[in-house]
Write a structure and sequence with these properties.
The chain is α/β, with parallel strands linked by helices. It folds into three domains: 5-205, Tetratricopeptide repeat domain (Serine Threonine Protein Phosphatase 5, Tetratricopeptide repeat), CATH 1.25.40.10; 210-312, no CATH class; 321-406, no CATH class. Helix content is 46%, strand content 9%. It is built from 16 helices and ten strands. It has helices spanning 5-20, 24-37, 42-54, 58-71, 76-88, 92-105, 110-122, 126-139, 144-156, 160-173, 178-190, 194-201, 240-249, 294-297, 354-361, 399-406, and strands spanning 228-231, 259-263, 275-277, 287-290, 321-324, 335-336, 347-350, 366-370, 383-384, 391-395. Strands 6-5-7-8-10-9 form a six-stranded mixed β-sheet, with helices on one face. It has a four-stranded parallel β-sheet with strand order 3-2-1-4. α15 links the parallel β7 and β8 (366-370). α1 (5-20) runs antiparallel to α2 (24-37), α5 (76-88) packs antiparallel against α6 (92-105) and α11 runs antiparallel to α12. The longest helix has 16 residues, at 5-20.
């Protein structure tokens, strides 16, 4: 039965109230009914598109938002919400057109300028994106999303000082924001500034992620009445990252302190320290610490790294070259690819993976190939590594350097 104007107005008020209360599903049903009755009602179309955006139904939101923008050509919010939907759908060129219309209707709006920057960044038009963020910040110099976005662009270009200045400005408004603190920490750590960066890096533990933590008090460096459990924080303890962290970071604990390392079952035989398996009961442990927090808890720097954890080689001594990288080896080399044998090879070439760390801990000459955005733990420089005396760090695309070091092998 068709609704009259009074009924439509009442239904619209109820729908707005439901949306304001967070009941977007009920609001969507009501706005859909209004649009069925009044197909050209721009405001109802706009509301319908908005609640579908809230529900994450971006494909279904597009059609009412496009119609709303058509029927309300002078409403900047209609253009902006359409742009947001198009961005979610990966339609960045169309989103940019909608944002240009919104900016024409509402010039000098910082949010429109920021979203324009996001869209340009998605299109890899980075210089234009930076100018858009500059515009947004010239209007509102504390606009957090633009400060964070511009910091990322500057950091990608290696302009650390500018990136850190933006993050510092953002943190004035939100000093406890863990995402901002973590990002600042990462930038400082990538420059080798552990003194300032390590504390910020602990903010990662405040961010809800798929991260493991045992049911124990978190160690803060204090003396303990019982043993300490060290653990990789990765949810997948059998993954490459967890194994790499276990070998690299389980170091520097006071020899007088009783501790054990939680690790993957196939890694335990290599470690010359007490180990426990994940999932085993942990009664008797006084506290626990994630391995990636040890540099902070122990006050380490790249210049004061303690000796690596003692490990054990399981394979027989071999004349082969351990090869644990995605790169294909040159022809003519006798290659070993079994990770268990990494500690028995005469030379190891690897990505930043646990077999290379195992070999390095044993004093085997090891070449580790790092990507441009390598883990901050390595520090800002290639070459000799402070982590292992036998390691040399090379850029993963340094084919000539790798070939020179393999010459004669």
């Amino acid at each position: 039965m068709p609704l009259n104007d009074q009924q439509i107005q009442a239904l619209g008020r109820d729908a707005v109230q439901r949306a304001a209360a967070g009941d977007f599903a009920a609001a969507e049903t009501m706005f859909s009914r209004i649009v069925d009755e009044r197909p050209n009602a721009g405001q109802a179309l706009h509301f319908l598109g908005q609640v579908r955006l809230k529900l994450g139904r971006f494909v279904e939101a597009r059609e009412p938002l496009e119609r709303a923008a058509k029927f309300m050509p002078r409403e900047p919010a209609a253009q902006t919400n359409l742009a947001g939907c198009l961005m979610q759908l990966g339609q960045h060129e169309a989103a940019l057109e909608a944002l240009a219309r919104a900016a024409h209707l509402k010039p000098n709006d910082p949010v429109i300028a920021h979203n324009t920057g996001r869209t340009l960044e998605a299109l890899a038009r980075l210089d234009e994106a930076e100018r858009a963020y500059d515009l947004a910040l010239s209007i509102d110099n504390r606009l957090l999303p633009s400060l964070a976005a511009r910091a990322n662009l500057l950091a990608a270009r290696g302009e650390w000082a500018g990136a850190l200045a933006d993050l510092d400005t953002a943190l004035v408004s939100r000093p406890n924001d863990p995402q901002l603190r973590l990002r600042r920490g990462e930038l400082l750590l990538r420059q080798g500034d552990w003194w300032r960066g390590l504390a910020d890096h602990e903010a990662r533990l405040e961010i809800a992620e798929d991260r493991y933590a045992p049911d124990l008090p978190i160690w803060q460096g204090e003396a303990l009445a019982g043993p300490l459990l060290l653990y990789p924080e990765q949810a997948d303890i059998d993954g490459d990252d967890a194994k790499r962290d276990t070998i690299m970071l389980a170091r520097g604990i006071d020899p007088a302190m009783t501790f054990a390392v939680q690790c993957a079952a196939d890694l335990a035989p290599h470690l010359a320290v007490p180990t426990v398996r994940r999932g085993d009961p942990v009664p008797g442990f006084a506290a626990a610490a994630p391995l990636r927090s040890l540099p902070h808890l122990l006050g380490l720097t790249l210049e004061t790294l303690p000796a690596s954890t003692a490990v054990t080689a399981l394979g027989k001594t071999s004349s082969r070259i351990g090869w644990f990288t995605r790169r294909e080896p040159p022809a003519g080399l006798e290659i070993e690819r079994d990770p268990v044998q990494a500690g028995a090879c005469r030379l190891v070439v690897g990505d930043d993976l646990w077999p290379a760390h195992l070999a390095a801990s044993l004093g085997i000459r090891t070449l580790i190939l790092l990507p441009r955005t390598a883990d901050w733990l390595w520090g800002p420089r290639l070459g000799t590594s402070p982590w292992y005396a036998s390691v040399e760090l090379l850029a993963e695309d340094d084919s000539e350097g790798l070939a020179a070091r393999l010459a004669g092998c």
